[in-house]
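Tokens for YcfA family protein. Go.
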Amino acid sequence: MRYKEIEKRLKKDGWILFAQRGSHCQFVHKTKTGKVTVPKHPGDINTSVVKSIWRQAGINETKVK
């Protein structure tokens, strides 16, 4: 899964881009606690990293596919 796909899904769930440092972006949510850090690398992001992103965001990964 690529960065743009992850970004689109996070924004659809209400996450807002908060900060970017280097090649990593941080998203925050109005009602959910914490931040979600997403690497903005070219190509596909590792599957285990994508699963971690969904877990941090509180998104059910079966709904994403």
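The chain has one domain: 3-59.
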